[in-house]
Every structure is written in structure tokens, then in C-alpha cells.
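Suppose a classmate hands you a notebook page containing two proteins, each written out with its sequence and a corresponding row of C-alpha cells. How would you begin to make sense of it? This section walks through that situation. The first entry is reproduced here exactly as it would appear on such a page.
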Amino acid sequence: MPEQGTAAIKARKLTKAFGHQTALREVDLQVDEGEFLALFGPNGAGKTTLIRIVASLTRPTGGIVSVRGEDLAKAGTSLRKHIGLISHSPLLYSDLTPDENLRFFARMYDLDNYEDRIDAVLEQVGLRARRRDPVRTFSRGMVQRLTIARAILHDPAIMLLDEPYTGLDLQAADMLRAVLQELAASNRTVILTTHNLEQGLEMCDRAAILNRGRVAWQGARAGLDLQSMKEHYREVTRPA
């Protein structure tokens, strides 16, 4: 297992094109073990594409991505056991209950004695009382809560969170913030994409701005206040 200070995620000249549209343009980015990176950028900047590539859900057009020292192109799906993903798609089965969904993922991740772990994550996201109700009956915020439970079920070393606050009510957002604080304190590697500069800066170690498929700016959180971050953002995302 890599030690803290080594690269958990490394991208070199990462490129992704969809037909004539290029989403990522030779991105170089490294996130160290235990580091929390907040990734900002306007719509269409390439944030979701980057997250999907690191999660091995999308193949890059060019460049190299390594996760925990393994080339993602060669490792295939085996690295997914180390990754928890919260994305725009909940990756849940709407006809199943939370209990059934989490049992499915627990078996997929080869978890031992997973009953207690399922109880714990459902309690953590406030859905224990609804564990036997079909997911199709849930509100958008409740589905997002269950998505969080799915993502942390196998206690992954790396968390990828793509706009996780989308669709959450105030109570659910507070719950997610508590989960993120726990992740930040537990030495996990985290990439959080968000449009909200204040939320992103709250717990990160480093911030980066993606614009037009390139890393336009990055810097340490230490000594960086919200006003300075706003100025950096406006500068690098200004229309050409």
C-alpha cells in the first residue's frame, strides 16, 4: 500500500475527445495519498469527464492515468475496490430497497460480515428507518443520501465526489458536510468538484481550477481566503 506523500492519482497529458469536441486537453494533475483536492470550474470545463476517467467509467483518448501506482488502462476494474464515487448518476437500482442495493454492492466488493456495515452507513445518512422501502419512492435528496451510503460502504481509500451537494435539502447537505469532514480527518484521498467556492475551500488541502479542458490554476489552501479564490477564478475563467 502506498505511503502518505506518494501519488494516489496521477494524470499525465490526459486527453478526452467526444467526436470533434475535446473535453480534456493534456491535463497534468497529481493528488497525493491523504490529500483533499477541491476542483472548481464552469460548466463544460471537463470536471465530470476527469472524475469518470479516474473512476474507470470512461477511457481517455490519450495520456496516462495511474491510481495508487497502477496504470488505470492495465488495471481495469480491479482498482474500483479502492474508489468511492458520488456522481450525477446515483448508480442505484430503483426497484430495490436501500438494504438490497447495499447488499448487492457489499457482495460486489467482497465485504465480509457486511450486515453491521450496512446498518452503520444507513444510520450515518439517516435512512435506517426507510431501509426496506423501494428507492423509486424516495425524493431526490434521499436518493443522494443513499448514494453517499453506497460510496462509503466499502471504506474506500479514494473518494471522488462530483457535485455531491446537487439536489440535497439543508438537512442532507449538513449530513454530507459531516461525512466530508470525517473523510478529511481520516487520511483518505478526496477529489471534490463543485461550483461553490466556499464549500470547496472549507476542507480542502489544495484547490485547482479546470477551464476549457485544462488545469488553469492550482494552489495550496493554506493562506488562501475566499476573496482570493474568487479573484483567481474570475481571472482564469474570463472569456478570451
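The notebook's second entry, a different protein, reads as follows.
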Amino acid sequence: MPSAGEIREQVAREADRRNRLAVPAFAGGFLYLLSAIIISGTLNGAPTVGLLQGLAPALSGVANPAESPRTAEVKFISHHAFALIAGSTLAAIAIGSLTLVLLLLLHATRFRRPQTWSAAYPLVLGGGIAVALVSLGHQVTSAIETHNFVVGHDYSNHAVEQALTTGTANDLADYVDLFAGLALAAGMIGTMINALRVGLLPRWMAFLGMFTGLLIFLPIGGAELQVVPAFWMVMMGILFLGKWPKGEPPAWAAGEARPWPSQAQLRAEAGGGRPAAATAGASATPAPVLPAGGGSSRKRRRKRGARG
């Protein structure tokens, strides 16, 4: 157990780091959402190839056309490479801010609960750095591949696949992105579980943080669902500033674990240790119930005994 002096020093260090990370947390949330809007908005304008358009060469008797129906899509991505790289750069900055927030939260959690999952730290640090770099590197690679396609002379289906998905650089980026995202998500979920156990995060913020980790690993739903990670980072900025509604969680100032009470404990406290209905029932004394006619029969027995 840390001494009182060590606890005071830890709380002071945490307060200083929280003040310095509050603005990056705010900025990271807004940048993450802006990145999703830029990338999603840009790709939504890309030309799409329907089923009939894709089968048109084959229906015309051309198995391998000189120009793939998806050529326009590759050219569009090449011409909008700057917007896509800019959006990925913002996402990389946001992921960097998220990583710093998680490391501070994990450090504070481990001080209050030394048995916290030790693998969470390398997963958050390594996964966060890798995701930030890959999110940017993937777009740079795509810009190079699509540019080479546009200035080249091979517009076949094979060339399109190489430019968009199956090139060596694209394959490498996809694998690294997969493992990096999985590492960051696992580390973030582990951090949320332990931060909840020691009381550093309200229950709903911990669950929202877990969902955020899943969305970073599986960026589904476009810009709409990416509001969730952005909102979580903004709320962490508010928490770090000490402006949390109804006061910040007590575990921060105490320097020790102050777990949030469960719903069963809250109900028990509200009922004074037992549910209200059970308490009311226990305090009420049921009135005796006499059998029908019991009083008059006893009176008749007393009268017969007096005559005898």
C-alpha cells in the first residue's frame, strides 16, 4: 500500500497531466469527427460501377477489356488524393491524442489497482502508434498506386485491382492495420474495465469507451457512428478539466480505488438495507384472526360451567 505522501504526489502528478491533456482530448475528438466527414464525403462522390456495367464487357464477348469499367473510380481516387490524405492526417493526430489519454488513464488505474492487466500498456502504446501511422500511410500508398495507374497505359481489370486492393503495398497496409487496430481495441477495452473497477470513470463512460475501441477496430457506419469516439474524447477532456457534471469521480482526488456501487447496492441503500416493500412488510404485525363464531362458543361454555 502506498503511503499518504506517495498518494499526494501521485494525485498532484495526475492533476498536472490531466490539465495538459484536456485540450488535446478536446481537439482529438473534433479532429476525429472532421476526419470521418472528409473521408466519407469524398468517397461518397466516387463513381460506382453497377452489376450490369461490370458485366457489360463479358456480355459483349470481351473477357478481358482493354479498359476496365472501374477505371473512372481509380481516376477519381487519384484526383482526390489530397483530401483523403488530409482526412487521414487528422485521424492520425486524433488517434495520437486518444493514445495519450488512455496511457494517463491506465497509469492512474494501475496506481490504484496494481493487479491491472499488464498487457494493456504495450497494447495501447503499440497499437495506438501503429494505427496512427497506418491510417496515414495507407492513404499515401493509395495515392501513389492510383497515380501510377492514371499516368500509365494499362487500364485492365488486373491493373485496377493492383491499384485499389491487391498490390503488395496495399496488402501489407491492410494486415498491419488489422493487427494494430485489434491491439488498440483490446488495450482500450482492458483499460476501460479496470478504470471502472477503481472508480476513475462513470459506468456509462467506461461502456462507451469499450464501444469506441470496437469502432476504431471496425470503422463501420460511416461518419454517423464515428461520432461516438469523438464524443468520448470530448467528454474525457471535460473530465480532465475537472468540469464533470455533479463533480468528478472521487477516486481521482482520493488516490485510491473508489469503485462505483452496483445497481443492487444502490437499491439496497435506497431501501435502508432491504427493499422498501420487504421492510414495510416486516414492520407490520398481522392482526390475529379468530375463527367464525369462536367468541360466542366460549361464552356458552362458561355459562354451562357456572350452572354445574
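A careful reader of the second entry would note: The CA atoms of residues 61 and 286 lie 93 Å apart.
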